[in-house]
Design brief:
Shape: globular
Number of strands: 11
Distance between the termini: 37 Å
Largest sheet: 7 strands, mixed
Strand content: 5-15%
Length: 507
């Protein structure tokens, strides 16, 4: 399946799904070439971001990793340390059984090493934006890039927009963490470029509604991560490679008989979980989709509201390869909120050290777990128990962001649930309830009927509400569609190379 080889509507593929494999608008492309030449902007290829050893270290030498400098586009990968230096293997931690309560090694790869936003969603933003630029669909001289999100993708989009000398607009619920908005206020070029929609993490449709209204203005270009297949391609090519590399590293360093049994990922936009498709292709890894118990959409077609910031709900993203999902698990935001307190307070850290033998290195690592990171980890523990995995069965997941984005939310949790103060007994109770007593409730191993039910649930969002052609929606039921997406990364890399050459010639 490609835009040129399929019988599916090419207009829908190119416009709504972002699957153009040709120059769509030569004039807009020329405008981008001139703008990038003026600003000395060079684009990395997906191959370079997937294997950063291909990137000349001199490109980012002396550049602050958090600066609005176009050279930081070459840091939009998993191979950074906290200072922005390139590392040979993505930073990760292997959680000990003394903490998790299961024999299976749980490998967590850190997303807060990404530049500018300290979250891996900046990769999703680049993966969605770059193909639109190099095919001439987005024109920086006349378009605003609109980034609908529950937080990190919008921040990533604003960062990528700045680096590409384009105007970006963040669209996100008003109830997201204060730290997200403080970052946006520093990075947007105009305060009006922050659009606050009603609600919190659970109010994705309100984001869609705002974007549909904004789309009436031809100057607004909507980059919807939930249906933008660049998101899928980027994570398959870049995140999938990084996770496989981390697993091989762990296997080569003391775990020679290890197999990669499962990959857990909160669905959110369903971009990251598509890295699991690559892991399944290589290792036969089971793909575990994770959602909030307070809004169990995949499990129960549910509704509600939750605080696991970074994962959406109440709909099935168009880019979620549902028919390749093996397990669905729900995790409570009460667990993520309260474990965040344990991981990030002196009382909680002391308890982990004294009672669970947590080393200083492990305690430091846990401070790099944001809400969805804790959620992914709890899902990994539940998966190990459900599938009966043992010491030779690794589970890998990602820490999308770190705790630095949630101090204001931690204050709310402390005030709401520990008003009398948080002490050793509180830490013990939280760990006992949410970590030591993890069970297999609220989980399913997906049958074909389960997959079809979850897949069909997406019809109401995408066909009825967002106007996706039915044949495009249905094509996603087949794995041939998803395997066809592998065509795009090398094609886009070729277009990026041509684009960079034209930019260089125009300087």
């Amino acid at each position: 399946m490609t835009a040129t080889e399929t019988t599916l509507d090419p207009h829908a593929l190119e416009t709504q799904l972002g699957l153009a494999d040709r120059v769509v608008d030569a004039k807009s492309l020329e405008n981008s070439v001139r703008r990038f030449a003026e600003q000395n902007i060079v684009l990395p290829t997906f191959a370079e971001l997937g294997e950063p050893a291909r990137i000349n270290p001199a490109v980012t030498a002396g550049v602050d990793k958090d600066a609005a400098d176009p050279r930081n586009l070459f840091r939009v990968h998993w191979y950074n340390d906290l200072a922005g230096n390139r590392v040979d293997v993505p930073d990760h931690v292997v959680l000990p059984s003394s903490l998790t309560g299961v024999d299976s090694p749980i490998i967590v790869v850190f997303g807060d090493r990404f530049p500018m936003i300290t979250a891996h969603k900046v990769l999703a933003a680049y993966s969605c934006f770059a193909p639109r630029v190099i095919t001439g669909q987005f024109d920086p001289t006349r378009h605003r890039a609109v980034w609908p999100s529950t937080g990190n993708y919008a921040r990533g989009g604003i960062a990528i927009s700045r680096l590409m000398n384009s105007r970006g607009v963040a669209v996100l619920p008003a109830g997201m963490s204060r730290e997200r908005f403080e970052w946006l206020e520093r990075w947007v070029t105009d305060p009006s470029d922050i659009v606050r929609t009603p609600g919190t993490e659970s109010n994705v449709k309100e984001i869609y509604d705002a974007c549909n209204e904004m789309a009436k203005d031809p100057g607004n270009f909507i980059l919807n991560q939930f249906c933008e297949f660049g998101n899928t391609v980027g994570h398959y090519e870049v995140t999938g490679r990084a996770l496989a590399h981390v697993f091989e590293h762990v296997k080569a360093n003391g775990h020679s008989g290890l197999r990669l049994a499962a990959f857990t990922s909160a669905t959110g936009s369903a971009g990251t979980i598509n890295a699991g498709d690559r892991l399944k292709d290589i290792y036969g890894t089971k793909i575990v989709a994770v959602e909030a118990l307070e809004c169990p959409t995949m499990l129960e077609n549910g509704f509600g509201e939750h605080n696991i910031q970074g994962i959406g709900d109440k709909h099935i993203p168009l880019i979620h390869n549902v028919m390749n999902t093996d397990v669905v698990v729900a995790v409570s935001d009460r667990a993520t909120d309260e474990l965040d307190v344990v991981f990030n307070t002196p009382e909680g850290q002391k308890y982990l050290a004294d009672r669970h033998g947590a080393s200083p290195a492990l305690i430091d690592a846990l401070t790099h777990f944001g809400f969805s990171s804790i959620c992914n980890t709890l899902a990994a523990i539940k998966t190990a128990k459900l599938l009966g995995l043992g010491a030779d069965d690794a589970i890998i997941t990602v820490a999308t962001d770190g705790s630095a984005l949630y101090p204001s939310e931690r204050e709310k949790t402390l005030a709401r649930r520990f008003a009398g103060g948080f002490g050793t007994i509180d830490a013990a109770e939280v760990v006992s309830e949410h970590l030591a007593s993890v069970d297999t409730d609220h989980m399913i191993e997906c049958t074909q009927q389960d997959r079809n039910r979850i897949f069909n649930l997406g019809y109401y969002t995408w066909v009825e509400q967002q106007g996706t052609p039915l044949e495009v929606f249905e094509a996603r039921r087949s794995q041939n569609f998803w395997k066809g997406l592998h065509h795009y990364a090398p094609v886009w890399d070729g277009l990026i190379t041509e684009f960079n050459a034209r930019v260089a010639a125009a300087r």
